[in-house]
Amino acid sequence: MMLLLRSLTSGSLCRSSWTRSCWTHSPGWMLHRSSRPPGGTVAQIWTLAQRAARQQPRPSGLVLRQLLGPMAVLSVSARLLCRSARCDADVNNNSRQPHAAAGPDFNWHVLWEFVKPQLLALVCAVVLAFGAAVLNIHIPLMLGDLVNVVARYLREHTGNYVQEIRGPALKLLTLYGVQGLLTTGYIILLSRVGERVAADMRKTLFSSLLRQDVAFFDANKTGQLVNRLTADIQEFKSSFKLVVSQGLRSLTQTVGCFVSLYLISPKLTGLTVVVLPCLVGAGAVIGSFLRKLSRLAQEQVSIATSVADEALGNVRTVKAFAMEERELQLYSAEVQKSCDLNENLGTGIAVFQGLSNVALNCIVLGTIFAGGTLISSNEMSPGDLMSFLVASQTVQRSLASISILFGQVVRGISSGARVFEYLSLEPSIRLAGGGRIPYHSLTGRVDFMNISFSYPTRPGHEVLKRFSLTLPPGKTVAIVGESGGGKSTVTSLLERFYDPTSGVIMLDGLDIRTLDLCWLRGQVIGFINQEPVLFASSVMENIRFGKPEASDAEVMEAAKQANAHGFITSFPDGYHTVVGERGVTLSGGQKQRVAIARALIKNPSILVLDEATSALDAESERVVQEALDRATRGRTVLIIAHRLSTIQGADLICVLSNGRVVEAGTHLELLSKGGLYSDLIRRQRASGHS
Ligand SMILES: Nc1ncnc2c1ncn2[C@@H]1O[C@H](COP(=O)(O)OP(=O)(O)OP(=O)(O)O)[C@@H](O)[C@H]1O
């Protein structure tokens, strides 16, 4: 400081390299290098003041340049963020089918719901942040006082220098210390709020996805959904934390120092108001464009992820067909598109920052003269200039952070919108929500009454047409028919994966739509299909999936019933054997028996077997069939069968063709009819499948 003032007095700083470099750089440069020591610009301002006082016609608008530039950027940034948050009207309204060309709306109300539980911490953080900002108002003013004391000492050379500056210097040090504490406090608090909000969001999104009905998953790719859970929340979390910590700090510092600037020179500060509307308008246009680009880029990333997800998830099929190269090409093409979009986004953000610089430089030209006039008319003292400069330096530093934050915030808001979209999505078939649980024990009678149905993804294609069928209690009913005739669809409707377009399904005389879905799926219906999917955990955990509260003994009992106990105990780790992803370390027959045990452990009244043995070889089929015969005793059973030999003992066989029941009866009755069923039997015998 002493050195600076000496230099000022001697005028040597006018020739310093700092001064020269400040003259030759734009405000944009200053924004991004605002960490430079303020001394150079202090000297520059001082020199300007001296020149103005001597009525030199040299540039005098640097003061305004320091002030107006950052102020304008602040306004533009703030406005852009608001615009980003609101999102345009051209967003895709089809919330079930996100499309790369547009995105969902950012819902502030949803964000508020996540922030609300953290409100106390947030309020404390905001209070601390504002405390720090208020102190920021004083720092430049006190610095100005200190400069005035030092300047006076240098001019008059009276008294003890240390004693002269001790008071203001100690005040300043205390202020710095308190401000540091407040800043640390609010950053810690805000960072915690951010982490907790993101964690809550992740849990809620996962729960919301799990709540969706099957039709939702028909329409959305798993890879894209997983991307929302991972990449989008990650992006949103980063933005949230940055905005609430760095952004809020920068904003409060800017506001605090802006007040300082106003206190120092209302005239200089007031001039900014004139230029704001133009910058705000331009910023809004660019912001809207960048937001759309950001959405496209993020959607494209999730498309690429879903390609990789599909290839890796079906890696055996990919390898069996030697399609690695093709999958790589597909993935590379999607990644390249995403890369191009992100490059464009980066360019857009760079253009935005570049344009800000150009705009600010233009403003500087206009303000040089106004600033010079103020200085030459002695409306500002040297101390004021010092204070003004320090305040404007802080504003610059803060605005530099805000301008860097801008790109992140645009991405964060897009990600947030994509996450929120699924949070508020209500499934048409609800898992919970007031459904009945009959108090009497079920007989297990099921009536399909005049069911018509089209899949939501193919509304024009009617799969079932006025389909009616009764499953008598404790009896076995088989549905057979040509491929694509709608057999599996019947089981999906019974499980309420979908609701019929028209008609009713009754369970013990009760419309299943009125029943508690968790109870229906969890306790009433046991489902075993052709390709059972196991989870990558132990055999024990996989069987227990059917009844989480089951004891080890219950698990083993179910495994015995399913003919699985023998092979499980032959493994070195027994029931603790980990089965690999989707159960890849088990054979088809073993997987099927674990799946049967998983279904049996809940002791369901109704058992649905959708081609449960059709993928097995003869020996596996025999063991599995034995388990199934045991499992079906005393239950209402619906069998979807390809191999007609497995259903000849069924109490009723129903032949489905083109969504309609065309024949029904026992095996012998249908054979004697000589209709479609006997045709199917004949064809299977001819092909050696029966
Ligand atoms: N999730 C779905 N979305 C749209 N259409 C579907 C869906 N699942 C099946 N379909 C269509 O519904 C029709 C009936 O399919 P379903 O699986 O019920 O037939 P299936 O009789 O069980 O056939 P298969 O014996 O070959 O298994 C088919 O035309 C099929 O393409």
TrEMBL record:
InterPro entries (UniProt xref): AAA+_ATPase, ABC1_TM_dom, ABC1_TM_sf, ABC_transporter-like_ATP-bd, ABC_transporter-like_CS, P-loop_NTPase, Type_1_exporter
Please provide one cellular component term from the Gene Ontology annotations of this protein: mitochondrial inner membrane
Q: Check the record and name the CDD domains matching this protein.
A: ABC_6TM_ABCB8_like, ABC_MTABC3_MDL1_MDL2
**Where is each ABC transmembrane type-1 domain found?**
125-411
- Residue limits of the ABC transporter domain? 446-683
Protein name as it appears in the record: Mitochondrial potassium channel ATP-binding subunit
Say which species the protein is native to.
Salarias fasciatus
Q: Where is coiled-coil annotated?
A: none
Q: Give a yes or no for keyword Membrane in this entry.
A: yes
Query: Where are its TM segments located?
Result: 119-139, 173-193, 247-264, 270-290
Query: Pfam families recorded for this chain?
Result: ABC_membrane, ABC_tran
Q: Which GO terms describe its biological process?
A: oligopeptide export from mitochondrion; potassium ion transport
Tell me the membrane topology, using the record's own terms: Multi-pass membrane protein
- Domain of life of the native organism: Eukaryota
Q: Which family does it belong to?
A: Belongs to the ABC transporter superfamily. ABCB family. Multidrug resistance exporter (TC 3.A.1.201) subfamily.
Listed GO MF terms: ABC-type oligopeptide transporter activity; ATP binding; ATP hydrolysis activity
Question: Where in the cell does this protein reside?
Answer: Mitochondrion inner membrane
